[in-house]
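look at this fold:
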Amino acid sequence: MLALVLLVLSFPVNYSHAFVAPYQPILNGGTCITTTRQMSNIQQGNNNEGEIKDDVSRTEVRVVSKNDDNDNKIIKNQQQNNNIMTRITTMGSLALAMSLCFYPSPPAAHASGYTSLTPEQKMTAEAWRTVDSTFLDRTFNGQDWFRLRQDLVKTKYESMEDAQTSVADMMLKLGDKYTKYLPPAKYQSLVDTATGTLAGVGVEIATNSDRLPCISDVEPNSPAMKAGLLPKDVFLEGDGTKFDKTSTPDDVALRLRGPVGSKVGVTVLRDGTTIKDFIIERAPIKVASVRSYIATENKQVGVIRIKSFSGTTTSSVKDAVLELKKKGANTILFDLRSNPGGLLPGGTEAASLFLEANKPVLFVVSNKGVIDAQETFVDGFDTETNLVILVDHNTASAAEVFTAALKENGRAKVVGEQVSTIL
């Protein structure tokens, strides 16, 4: 405290606009006296004295002759006034220093009480930010979009699962069936499907015309085939969970997959009348996303079944075309029924195999109106063979892109069910 008082007394006092300067001699033989408006005005001297008075904010400046006795008296009086003001200022400074020393310090402000978010709240904020930066409909389906974010980050979540449920609810309010939140387990399921390696029973899952989850295909030599599951079987229950029209193929797949060697109970409805129960042992499944064969009724038609598009689809399709043409096929039928898509580059690159250079393949329009146009750079390896694409109501995403690219460039004829207005 003593050090602080001494420090205050060692410097002139400056309270914003009030500065008390010491007496200084002027170079031209006179004396310059500077005061602030708080000091007493100097009485006017004789004619040798010049005076500037400032009644508000400017300082007063006097130039006084050395040989004038009256001026010397003025100087003496002014010095006395300066001494008085210095004492007053010093006492004020001391009082201020003492008050600062003994005034209690305010409690430290903790940022965590105002700006810190829990991991659950951070997750919801990041989910909101991701949708905000990419969603095309800037009205957000008529939702008060920023109010939704405020509600998300203010909620006190008991677990990460609760936070994930809130994010899923937010996505539902957007009214877009292609915009949804995938929790870690479902996301891993998607990754496993795209990479072609997973542990399960070996069935491909879709939805039928009644919007019920069903089997669209069974992998050869898979546990499902060995157990007796057939295409078009409708899933009623899996691993203790019941399914209905609100259940998605991902919901069913999540229950059918599990550790290698474990068993899962499955209940299906066959032919709309018979309920069958199965106990199936899970095994590693290598998904063959591309299969090919010669049509039984027309040996000049080669069929390529693409279940989904991945990073290896393009090379697999090229190999399949070459093999079918060796067997005498002059027309290639791509079977994309129940193909949910997969990786977008897999679809665009596969389509490029059959297009000439500088042909449009895909246009992507961002939510800011920026158009990303993708075209072929070189001629594909086969730009002559007749192509036909078979689709249904479950053909989606990258499969739609593949179909549209070939149809719009006049390279393929599309048959089956209409899946999009672009077809």
About this structure: Confidence is low (pLDDT under 50) at residues 1-68, 93-114. The longest strand covers residues 263-270. The first helix runs from residue 2 to 9. The chain has four domains: 2-102, 117-172, 196-286, 290-416.
